[in-house]
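Quick one, tokens below. Sequence please?
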């Protein structure tokens, strides 16, 4: 029997050095794309995939992320008094049910794999999703839902994948491909940040995963990989052969909001999707570029 996917881990303990000084006192995941912080896009996407329990892996200076999901009692009372119903609705949509949300600490950022291992008590014996909030996907069907549908069929691990330029493989986790039907890729190996000369493909993992709990025992070895960090990719690689393991070429456009260019592209793309903003933004872009 395939266990249903109901849990998600959101690692947010990284330092966000590429976004300094913006991230000196504010977590990268609170940066807004249009009017919603990155963390909320990730939580909304997870809910749309059937996730009911959330674990945020945080570190120092990340309090705002936890507070974002609290009920802002005074603010709500004020909005109610002033009959600001639309704004109240926005707040309600953002909040999570009582008990649906826990926080664990990663005191030292030793790598993504270490961050996931910190959530081991939350994960227990259940399958779980991982969402890296700085990867934002604009799609018809939420990206995690696309992965969850594959998990419901296979019961194994599923990672979202996309092609990257060959010379850029050393920035990503890269798949070694057993077979490929153009959408679903059977995986025979994974390598973190390979140099282009030795990369087995140019298919890279983006920040959406469905994982089986067996990955925790592999992470517990605390092997250091690329960048001397505990790498999730290395632990996942050791699951291949023991359970189904697939890459999914998801439908949608991914923005790397951890990089400045990706973040700016996301602002424009998401604004152009909004009926209230699109006319003004596209008029501005046309005029500005023409000038
Ligand atoms: P990044 O590689 O984007 O690192 O982490 P970062 O620290 O967030 O940003 P830069 O590179 O310094 O600008 C990918 C994801 O893994 C989390 C990050 O919060 C981000 O969601 N992470 C990374 C942790 O939670 N802990 C770690 O030790 C490392």
């Amino acid at each position: 029997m395939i266990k249903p996917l109901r849990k998600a881990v959101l690692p947010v303990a990284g330092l966000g050095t590429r976004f300094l000084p913006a991230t000196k006192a504010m977590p990268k995941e609170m940066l807004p794309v249009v009017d919603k912080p990155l963390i909320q896009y990730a939580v909304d996407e997870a809910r749309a995939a059937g996730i009911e329990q959330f674990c945020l892996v945080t570190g120092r200076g990340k309090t705002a992320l936890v507070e974002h999901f609290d009920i802002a009692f005074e603010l709500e009372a004020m909005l109610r008094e002033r009959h600001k119903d639309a704004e109240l609705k926005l707040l309600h949509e953002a909040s999570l049910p009582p008990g649906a949300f826990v926080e664990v600490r990663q005191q030292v950022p030793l790598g993504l794999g270490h961050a996931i291992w910190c959530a081991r008590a939350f994960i227990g014996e259940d399958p779980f999703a991982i969402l890296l909030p700085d990867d934002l996907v604009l799609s018809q069907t939420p990206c995690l839902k696309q992965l969850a549908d594959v998990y419901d069929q296979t019961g194994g691990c599923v990672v979202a994948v996309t092609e990257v330029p060959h010379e850029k493989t050393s920035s990503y986790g890269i798949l070694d491909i057993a077979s490929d039907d153009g959408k679903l890729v059977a995986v025979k190996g994974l390598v973190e940040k390979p140099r282009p000369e030795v990369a087995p493909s140019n298919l890279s993992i983006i920040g959406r995963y469905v994982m089986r709990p067996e990955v925790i025992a592999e992470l517990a070895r605390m092997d250091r990989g690329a960048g001397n960090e505990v790498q999730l990719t290395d632990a996942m690689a050791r699951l291949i052969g023991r359970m189904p393991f697939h890459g999914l070429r998801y439908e949608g456009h991914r923005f790397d909001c951890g990089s400045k260019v990706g973040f700016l592209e996301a602002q424009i793309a998401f604004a152009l999707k909004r009926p209230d903003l699109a006319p003004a933004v596209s008029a501005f872009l046309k005029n500005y570029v023409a000038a």
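The longest strand covers residues 184-192. The longest helix spans residues 260-272.
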